[in-house]
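re: that complex we talked abt at group meeting.

here r the seqs, copy pasted straight from the sheet so there may be weird spacing, ignore it
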Amino acid sequence: MLNLPRWQVIGIIAITALAALFALPNLLPGSVLDKLPAWYQASRINLGLDLRGGAHFLLEVDLRSVLNERLTNLSDSARGELRKQQIGFKDVTVQNGTSVEVVLRDASQRNKAIEALRTVDPSLQIGGDGDTIQIAFSNQDLVRRKKEVIDQSIEILRRRVDETGTIEPTITREGDDRILLQVPGIKDTTDLKQKINQTAKLTFHLVNEEVAQAGQNIPATLPPTTFLAPTREGMQALRLANPKAYEQITTANPRMSPEQVCRRFQPPCLPVFKRIVVGGEDLDDAKATFESQQQGGRPIISFTFNSAGGRAFCAATRANIGKRLAIQLDSEIISAPVVQSAICGGSGIITGQFTPQQTQEQALLLRSGALPATLTIIEERTVGADLGADAIHAGALAAVVGTILVILFMLFVYGPLFGGFASLAMLVNLLLVLAGMSLLGASLTLPGIAGLVLTVGMSVDSNVLIYERVREERENGRSAFSALATGYDRALTAVIDSNLTALIAGVLLFGMGSGPIKGFATSLTLGLLTHLFTATVFTRMLLAVWVRWRRPTELPV
Amino acid sequence: MLWKPHHLIRKRTSFDFLGKRKIALVLSSVVNLAALVGVFVFGLNFGIDFQGGIAIQVRAKQGQVQLDALRSELGNLGVGEVTLQEFGDKSTALVRVQRQEGNAECVAHADAVMKRRAGNGWSVKPGPDSKTGDVDFTAPSTLDGAGWRDAVSQVGLTLQERQVPRANSNTARIDMSLEQRAEWCQQVAIKVVDDTIKDRYEIRSTESVGPKVGGELMQSGIWAVVATLGAIAVYVWFRFEWQFGVGALIALLHDVLSTVGIFVLFHLDFSLTALAALLTIAGYSVNDTVVIFDRVRENMRRYKKMGLIELLNFSINETLARTIMTAGTVFVAVLALVLFGGPVLYSFSIAMLWGVIVGTYSSIWIASACLVYMKLRPEQLRLGKDDEAKAKA
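got the structure back, here u go
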């Protein structure tokens, strides 16, 4: 047991050194750290919001009202389609948030009615019998839509909260219908809530083709009905070519109008009519899809308006076939497709030389105008930065004092050599935990620091078990070498069993916890896991190397 | 050698631990019964995590917190029960406000907040249908969509596009369910407290847990404790024998319940961190128990003729030095947390301190004593390494 091949010794030392390397940035003072390369600095453990200061919001997405709204729209379209096909119906009603029920005047028209309803949306599930027809969204469709609503909400939150790209919020989906929003370093949450409420403005404008055909990117004078707006590609090109100018635009206060941006920085721009054809609030859905094989199977974007938007869009497209319709998001034109035909019935497609990725992106942009569902704050935790600093101070002090007390205790009881081994193993264990947290990208919270302190107290236990057993074996009359080997062997089952049982508590805690508690569970669980390494491998190496070196006849334990 | 190691226990001890098992049984029963009665009579001091509610940490801008004056001032706001306690030092306090109901009173508060923050022309009233949580906002002048969004965020509302008035308008009905309104009322209550004290106090942290999350956390917390105890008992059963599993389980129940008793006795805040303490204590306690069980199993195989009580005493005495050492190191580490960890960790650390003591006690007098009452016999053990070695020889 105490014979350890050299390659294992080298391996263990290598792992320990690597762990130390990863853990080191967390222990160095800032002034030293600044001189080191950036990638190395970046391997620091993230501080949790309770240490760093910041806001944590759990938002609930109201999916039920989204579904109800969709059903109402579906019943509108169903009514319209049945009227168009001249199929008589008594009633079209939304049934308790799951389906729409159509009652026909004449049951014999059932098949014709079903055909008509299929044209509204071919993926609908149609049931019922006689003169009643039940229509509902397919499961697949509901799941897709749910995911879309949440993804869209997350995307919008990101755009709104992090306008300048410097705040680094963490926005993740939680459970079935929730979003966790964590914003480090803010103090005033009223401001944040205001930002969440801000809407990206999505509008459809006709392009003033007369001005556009004159050929100048930035005409000196414009008719009063028209303004200039930069295209999205143009702005992206500007961002690459002239980052300073781009920054100037995004940080300008008051904000620059699209026309000011055009005149001052001259990116590719388009002249569009001021009149808004239809607004983004009337856009129900936009998704990336493909046209049918006969048409060429190109990636396209399809979109759907609500009934008000659909009517406005129908009138505008009918009167302007062959002209371009610009879609403006905030101050950029994200796309300006040519109107091919009148688009009535509330839905249409945008074709062009798109890659599937581009259509995905454009669809997301189209959807990012409107928050698709109400977000209710169901949990809020905000910590001021100075309170966080106090917490770091208290936690660090407790950790240092705890560690020193434990080391003194071990040195006193087991002497400088064996006590030193135990303390060294405990410190290596601590390094491993820190390195593990760096690698996993886990956050260190105040309860997490408590977990570290507990790890310090508990991780010397394996050494205690081994040493006490060695003392016993020695008293039973074994030789120094034999006592060490047997003591280690016999203590090992207790070490492993006792750690694994404690690990159960840690893992379950991790499963249920949120925020700070998760931080506690992380450091405690990692501490127990790395402890298994230091107890079974590292301590053994120390003892083996020492025995080989000194060939002891007496054990100073 | 710089100095010689010290043996905490000079010689092999032979205390009759299990001879005192009846005394221990009575003592433990009394403590646990008291804890149980305490929970039902006095109740646990539930933090907002499990009950829902608001906790605001405030620091006086000048001097100390005037606890009594502040208590009566906030108590009269009409946001329900408000409790105050000093937090860490004399100039800091924790204000706790009970969970809000989504009632008309809350809408009246929203009205007051809106008038204070956005101007006197505003008014907020409940919608006409009392089955829903609709709220009607009236503005002093007509506003467009952006204006509405800005205005309602003063009272912590986030609007969906569909809820924003289409045309410029000076009235808006924000539709909500009653549950949604109850969640929103938490936000309103924060603003009410905020407005009342912000001139004199700096707000250091705000926590708000809505009714829904509170209920869920309570449920998942109970589940986590049950699952942890169950999983540990099953593990011990598989690694040892069912008698050991039962012994460990009873010891864990004892530890958890008596720790809950400590929370009642000292009126400590029972929050998510308290739950973490319970589970950690369970982990520590079973760690200790397993070390003793491991030795009991080993000795049972070796000394098949020894009486059970004698054997248990012998095993506990053998591991006594280790028990004291480990309890000692964990105790000093936790003591550092109690002394320096700050007010947020205080409840947790006190509970852990107790956990170290009770976890060590229960390994000896509860878990091991259970083996006596279940009349464990060596024949009931599965074959181990020692037996296999003997069989070969």
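couple things i noticed - The first helix of chain A runs from residue 6 to 27. Chain A has three domains: 6-53+386-550, 73-141, 201-367.
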